[in-house]
Amino acid sequence: MVIVPKSQKRNTIISIVLTLIAFVLFVSVALFEELAELSMIIMIAGLVLLAASWAVYFMSGKTPPKEEAENVITVIACRSCGQVEERSFAQGDYIFKDMGQCKKCSGPSFIKSIYSVSPKKE
Ligand SMILES: [Zn+2]
Asked: How many other C-beta atoms are found inside a 10 Å radius of the C-beta of residue 42?
């Protein structure tokens, strides 16, 4: 499942709206002679809006997706029967740590390895 961040969608809309407003300003300067005196101000305002819309657009594009926390797995193995169990990493886990009795045979178990899995991207 792909989750599209809502903020990105919103930024795209803001960008489009700003561009439209800038466009309307440029057109009204061209169409209405009454605005001739204000043309400089309106043109500058329009350019600022255009720049802002691009800034919003590019910023939203560059926003990196939230990185999911890496999933760290601890592998617990039994020295006697070879039973292997995996569970999520807990604080204080280290390789070769004594993990007490094996659930299967009550033999000594230990942390065989610790590894991280990158979250699956679908
Ligand atoms: Zn065992």
From this structure: 19
pLDDT tens by residue, 13-43: 888 888 899 888 888 888 887 777 788 888 8
| 60, 15 Cβ separation under 8 angstroms | yes
Q: What protein residues have CB closer than 5 angstroms to ion ligand 1?
A: 78, 80-81, 83, 102, 104-105, 107
- Listing from the earlier edge strand, what are the strands of the sheet with 98-101? 84-88, 71-78, 108-117, 98-101
Q: Are 76 and 99 in contact (CB under 8 A)?
A: yes
pTM score above 0.70: no
Structure tokens at 33: 């002679």
Write out the DSSP string of 47-106.
HHHHHHHHHHHHHHHH-PPPPPPPEEEEEEEETTT--EEEEE--TT--TT-EEEE-TTT-
